[in-house]
UniProtKB/TrEMBL annotation:
Organism: Candidatus Blochmannia vicinus (nom. nud.)
Entry similarity comment: Belongs to the ribulose-phosphate 3-epimerase family.
PANTHER family: RIBULOSE-5-PHOSPHATE-3-EPIMERASE (PTHR11749)
NCBIfam families: PRK05581.1-4, rpe
Cofactor: record remark: Binds 1 divalent metal cation per subunit.
Protein name, UniProt field: Ribulose-phosphate 3-epimerase
PROSITE patterns: RIBUL_P_3_EPIMER_1 (PS01085), RIBUL_P_3_EPIMER_2 (PS01086)
Pathway: Carbohydrate degradation
Record-annotated active site: 36, 177
GO MF term list: D-ribulose-phosphate 3-epimerase activity
Length: 221
């Protein structure tokens, strides 16, 4: 695994030319794509479903994709997204009645499993499922929209989660989602994150290559 992963969130991409825009962000150096699924029920916004992922895979997008489910219920969606090429499937613990069963389902489909925690959600459910997790994502905004501001107290949660991962001895990515930009990314790295999900800071910038290059140099210095 690389020291850190830059994961552009396609929620901020240009949906009128999604394939092209994603190809550009991949050429610019993205490590992982972040695919936000919103149902206007669990979160107050509606985005894209598995048909769009299927189209992107058919178009030739082959890099790893993390499907971030902000929807309820999720077990049907897990099967849908797994069958069209999701690499990771990440969900919020409060969106399923049976966390362990949903994680199991992801694994049975051969995908990697992630749990996503809202800013005020505790990590307590990890105690008995951490061995089934490949990625923990901490929301640093309330889910539903791109372009919101990073909630500063999440830095503390990142450090706590990093300790928890280290104590577990499992190889788990620690991702942060929401409000990350060139100014605050260094503090997020120092707190212990290794995967940086970024929507508006990348897709809203004039040149993806320059932006990702700048992000990498801030992270590496
Ligand atoms: C928010 C989504 C994020 C969002 C991040 O609910 O889960 O992935 O696209 O966008 P920015 O980086 O603009 O906060
Ligand atoms: Zn997301």
């Amino acid at each position: 695994m690389k020291h850190f992963l830059i994961a552009p969130s396609i929620l901020s991409a240009n949906f009128a030319k999604l394939g092209e825009d994603i190809t550009d962000v991949i050429s610019a150096g993205a490590d992982l794509l972040h695919f936000d699924v919103m149902d206007n029920h669990y979160v107050p916004n509606l985005s894209i479903g598995s048909m769009v992922l299927q189209s992107l895979r058919n178009y030739g997008i082959s890099i790893p994709i993390d499907v971030h489910l902000m929807a309820k219920p999720i077990d049907g969606l897990i099967s849908d997204f797994a069958s069209v090429g999701a690499t990771y499937i990440s969900f919020h613990p409060e969106t399923t009645k049976h966390i362990d069963r949903s994680l199991q389902l992801i694994k049975e489909h051969g995908c990697k499993a992630g749990l996503v925690f809202n800013p005020s959600t505790t990590l307590s459910c990890l105690e008995y499922v951490i061995h089934k997790i490949d990625m923990i994502t901490l929301m640093s905004v309330n889910p539903g929209f791109s372009g919101q501001s990073f909630i500063p107290i999440i830095l503390k949660k990142i450090s706590q989660t990093r300790k928890l991962i280290e104590n577990s001895n499992y190889n788990i990515n620690l991702a942060v989602d929401g409000g990350i930009n060139i100014k605050n990314i260094r503090s997020i790295l120092e707190a212990g994150a290794n995967t940086f999900i970024m929507g508006s800071a990348i897709f809203g910038s004039p040149n993806y290559y320059d932006t990702i290059h700048m992000i990498r140099s801030v992270l590496s210095n």
